């Protein structure tokens, strides 16, 4: 796993006064202006090396003609600008030019360490939903029509596991100042990553075309300028269908180092699917993947690491910016020390190429898919609910099969299947139709097209109803947030059936675990299986009290004067919904599914939360109460 070694948060030079000329560095100062050099003064800063981002593409040559700098890289696709060697004073003068958007101090990049462990198991894990593994790796195709770009330390292209499919295509260290830099992987990290992605023996996509994009040197170090140069080359020269793997990142909690994020986004916009490692600081205070670049780029696929028991690896970063987990502990793959050499390594660097390989397999079968479509397909196909200790990350484990593991049936949704907007399931007698409407609601209609049941989620943005492999039937928005579900996670549910009698039932074997309820929810209560989302309110029958889940995540009871009577103290939180679960517990959940507050009534027969005329909020089961807000 590559990293920038230190936070970009420690920025020097901010607020410094410098004399600025329009474009020329040696011109007489006309006025004084405050300038900022992003990333200046950090411990990972590369002295005398800067990245200059220009406002207009046509200004590049103009700026270079008027400034005596030693250019190391020119960018034309991922960014508009160049990297150059210059003094700090020259960099500040350039930062004040009207043609310059910003100047960024170059940063050092290094790979993470490795450790020896038992033999690899990753391929065996990703082709099946559940443990234990079965000793085989099954795949639908070998991705021979796909191009994979490994942005790393290079690839030992002569390694036998690559079968002549690997080429060395870009070297960030071959510059005008160093024209004879050899095309070799003298570190090993890139070869190992490439082997997991596309090796004949160790790889997920066994016939993919591998392209070495070298941005890390023999010591496992590189620069931000070099990484962007590699991305720029991929953006300009890629052949579709294309996937890029980036097992490197930098800590940037204050979003000050957006130049790398911007480069990745532009490359994705050009049609390249990017897979990035979440980074390896999960057991430290900087373990949130959302603080790392480019792991936080939402348009890519960010990967955390698991071990052989499906637990999050202790080192793996976590959080809502992690899209998916994959094997990343004790991974055996090709290595750079010989044409048959192998090594065993740990890291999210090892997890990411498992996903990149799965992307290649998917692209082989769907060569015109956009990066957005690829991301959705891979994430949606993941196995839900299997990873332990996710630390608030979405609970998704890579499932590498690109083909459905079900046979579609007209009257049912089976485990692993989903219903998209406009799609429907029809009862065998043709009298009832269950559809996902464009307003985001699941709707059951009878033969006269009258609505007999719906999920009460109109306007919440639902775009996909999925019967997950954990047994839960969930309605998701485009960003993966649930808006409704059957509360059947962890059960044996394997099908949702639209029956001839007009019922919709969740079955597991011969048992049923859920069925549709015809009743319309009352305005004064949340009943079992229902959800309250941000902005929604329940009102007492006399209209004097309102229970609202606010947009800041706080659940608040207001009186008629608009004064708060009670709240859950979850203000300014990531809470997005409140659910009365089938186990009797009333829970506030974050977008990632982490509980933030609850009544502690699981295991009780609680079936309704009522806002009463006396201002109390009470959780009832039958005629008994099990919790109230005045406790």
TrEMBL record:
One GO process term, biological-process aspect: proteolysis
Superkingdom per UniProt: Bacteria
Single GO molecular function: serine-type endopeptidase activity
Protein name per the record: Subtilisin family serine protease
Keyword Protease: yes
Coiled coil: none
Signal peptide: 1-32
GO cellular component: a single term: extracellular space
Native organism: Saccharothrix variisporea
Keyword vocabulary terms for this entry: Hydrolase, Protease, Serine protease, Signal
Positions of the Bulb-type lectin domain: 410-519, 523-631
Gene3D superfamilies in the record: Bulb-type lectin domain, Peptidase S8 propeptide/proteinase inhibitor I9, Peptidase S8/S53 domain
InterPro entries to which the protein is assigned, alphabetical: Bulb-type_lectin_dom, Bulb-type_lectin_dom_sf, PCSK9_ProteinaseK-like, Peptidase_S8/S53_dom, Peptidase_S8/S53_dom_sf, Peptidase_S8_Asp-AS, Peptidase_S8_His-AS, Peptidase_S8_Ser-AS
Xref: SUPFAM superfamilies: alpha-D-mannose-specific plant lectins, Protease propeptides/inhibitors, Subtilisin-like
Active site: 152, 189, 349
Classification of source organism: Bacteria, Bacillati, Actinomycetota, Actinomycetes, Pseudonocardiales
Family: Belongs to the peptidase S8 family.
């Amino acid at each position: 796993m590559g990293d920038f070694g230190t936070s970009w948060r420690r920025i020097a030079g901010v607020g410094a006064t410098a004399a600025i000329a329009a474009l020329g560095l040696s011109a007489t100062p006309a006025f004084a202006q405050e300038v900022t050099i992003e990333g200046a003064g950090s411990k990972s800063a590369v002295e005398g090396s800067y990245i200059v981002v220009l406002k207009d593409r046509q200004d590049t040559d103009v700026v270079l003609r008027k400034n005596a700098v030693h250019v190391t890289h020119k960018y034309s696709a991922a960014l508009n600008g160049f990297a150059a060697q210059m003094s700090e004073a020259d960099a500040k003068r350039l930062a004040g030019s009207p043609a310059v958007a910003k100047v960024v101090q170059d940063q050092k990049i290094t790979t993470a360490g490795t450790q020896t462990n038992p033999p690899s198991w990753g391929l065996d894990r990703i082709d099946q939903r559940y443990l234990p593994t079965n000793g085989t790796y099954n795949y639908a195709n070998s991705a021979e029509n796909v191009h994979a770009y490994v942005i790393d330390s290079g690839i030992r292209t002569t390694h036998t596991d690559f079968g002549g499919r690997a080429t060395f295509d870009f070297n960030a260290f071959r510059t005008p100042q160093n024209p004879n830099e050899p095309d070799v992987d003298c570190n090993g990290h890139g070869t190992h990553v490439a082997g997991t992605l596309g090796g004949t023996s160790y790889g997920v996509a066994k016939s993919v075309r591998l392209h070495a994009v070298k941005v890390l040197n023999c010591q496992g170090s590189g620069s931000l300028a070099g990484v962007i140069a590699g991305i720029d080359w991929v953006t300009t020269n890629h052949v579709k269908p294309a996937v890029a793997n980036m097992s490197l990142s930098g800590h940037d909690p204050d979003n000050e180092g957006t130049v790398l994020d911007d480069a990745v986004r532009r490359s994705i916009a050009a049609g390249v699917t990017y897979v990035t490692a979440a980074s390896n600081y999960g057991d430290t205070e900087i373990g949130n993947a959302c603080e790392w670049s480019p792991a936080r780029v939402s348009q890519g696929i960010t990967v955390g690491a698991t071990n052989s028991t499906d637990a999050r690896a202790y080192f793996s970063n976590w959080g809502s910016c992690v899209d998916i987990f994959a094997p990343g502990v004790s991974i055996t793959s090709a290595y750079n020390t010989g044409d048959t050499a192998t090594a065993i390594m740990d890291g999210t660097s090892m997890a990411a190429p498992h996903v990149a390989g799965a992307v290649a397999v998917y692209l082989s079968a769907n060569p015109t898919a956009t990066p957005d479509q690829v991301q959705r397909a891979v994430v949606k196909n993941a196995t839900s609910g299997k990873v332990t200790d996710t630390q608030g990350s979405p609970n998704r484990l890579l499932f590498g099969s690109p083909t459905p593991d079900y046979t579609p049936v007209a009257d049912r949704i089976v485990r692993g299947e989903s219903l998209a907007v406009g799609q429907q399931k029809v009862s065998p007698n043709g009298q009832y139709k269950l559809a996902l409407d464009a307003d985001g609601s699941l709707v059951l209609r009878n033969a006269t097209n009258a609505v007999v049941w719906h999920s009460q989620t109109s306007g919440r943005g639902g775009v996909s109803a999925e019967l997950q492999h954990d047994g839960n039937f969930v309605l998701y928005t485009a960003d993966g947030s649930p808006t409704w579900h059957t509360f059947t996670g962890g059960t044996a549910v394997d099908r949702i059936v639209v029956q001839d009698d007009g019922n919709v039932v969740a079955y597991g074997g011969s048992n049923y675990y859920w069925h549709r309820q015809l009743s319309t929810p009352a305005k004064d209560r949340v009943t079992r299986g229902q959800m309250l989302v941000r902005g929604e309110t329940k009102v007492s029958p006399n209209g004097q009290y309102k229970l609202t889940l606010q947009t800041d995540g706080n659940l608040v009871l207001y009186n008629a004067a608009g004064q708060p009577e009670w709240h859950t103290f979850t203000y300014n939180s990531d809470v997005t919904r409140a659910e009365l679960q089938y186990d009797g517990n009333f829970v506030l959940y974050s977008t990632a599914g982490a509980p933030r507050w609850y009544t502690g009534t699981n295991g009780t027969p609680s079936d309704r939360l009522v806002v009463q005329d006396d201002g109390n909020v009470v959780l009832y089961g039958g005629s008994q109460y099990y919790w109230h807000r005045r406790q």
